[in-house]
Amino acid sequence: MVYYDNPSAPIPAEYRKYNVKIADHIEDNSQNIVVVGELIVHKAKEFNNCQLVIWWLSVDNFYGPARTYLPVSDHFKRGFTYGVDNFFYKLTHGFFKYFFNNISFKELSKANILHCYQSVYAQQFLLKRGYTEILPLSDYINTEFVNKHSAKPKENKILYNPKKGYRFTKKLMKSAPHLKWVALEKMNREQLLHEFETSKLYIDFGNHPGKDRIPREAVINNCCVITNTKGAAHYFEDVPIDRQYKLSESKHSVAEIIHTIEDILNNYEQHIQNFAFYQKTISTEKATFLAEVEQIFINPE
Fold it and tell me: Is 125 a member of any domain?
């Protein structure tokens, strides 16, 4: 692993258990494979000989600050899909990227670049742009957050991430002040796990740039989950829950969503059974990830 912005940075304590080997530079030769995330795709221009792999852990975050330049038409398409606020944000930073570290989608389709996708959402994003050298490379959640058989009693608490979709979540909270809403912020791992273990529901009305971590951590600890239909949440393969738990802000009223929330809280034992498939999927993620790594890096066809 190379920390591109600070090669001498120490390994964070949370990652030392993985025994990661650190380097302070990358040798640009054909014997090396360089994996970069979608946040730093412009780094691809620094290598001419390495085998490059872009790992698309998200799609939406690709459009943020210091990301690649996009055609104006792409910004308009995504602007209308994700809302006016995100539209102007992506448009501004897209032009910034054009004048500074410009790299086009055409350059990203070069023969020496393999694209790996974490979600079906990212897969479709790549296929629509004509990329053919693509392979699945998913991920798995931290097993420290897995305590499916916790004996702690479930409470009528609704968990939410204040950094995602808070504008709409605030409308729900205002409409139902009698319910107990818990923001997942300023918590360590033990505190987060406690909230997952003792709550009945997690809601997420933000954008879903990939298979997000918190919904998986919640459901594996026997929380029901409600999302919208944005990004990866649109695809059953990425967020495998029934449509009754995917509630679009544009198609469902606040009152209707509150009714669904209250029904889950009042009939939790019935609803949690509908998340068994999602839980099973999460429990196999590590094995799937290791198999994908072997296919790509160890025994490629």
Answer: yes
The rounded distance, in Å, linking the Cα atoms of 61 and 190 is 28
* Mean pLDDT along residues 42-71: 75
pLDDT beyond 80 at 144: no
Cα–Cα distance measured from residue 137 to residue 57, given in angstroms and rounded to the nearest whole number: 9
- pLDDT, averaged across the chain: 85
Averaged pLDDT, 267-293: 96
**What pLDDT score does 66 carry?**
37
CATH of the domain at 205: 3.40.50.2000
| Residue 137 · residue 296 · CB < 8 Å | yes
At residue 202, the 3 state secondary structure works out as strand
> Residue type at 170?
K
Residue 114's SS3 state is strand
Domain count, the chain: 2
- If asked whether residues 203 and 133 sit together in one domain, one would say no
Tell which wins on pLDDT, 281 or 77. 281
Full residue range of the structural domain in which residue 268 is found: 143-283
Same domain? For 36 and 168 the reply is no
Query: Are 83 and 195 members of one domain?
Result: no
Residues 6+ apart with CB under 8 A from 280: none
Q: Which of 100-109, 115-124, 226-235 has the lowest mean pLDDT?
A: 100-109
- Residue at a domain's end among 137, 171, 199: 137
**Domain boundary residue, one of 88, 112, 137:** 137
Q: Which of 85, 78, 56, 37 is nearest to 211 (CA)?
A: 56
Residue-level pLDDT at 85: 43
What is the distance between the terminal CA atoms of the chain, rounded to a whole angstrom?
25
Q: What is the pLDDT of residue 150?
A: 76
CA distance 289 to 295: 10
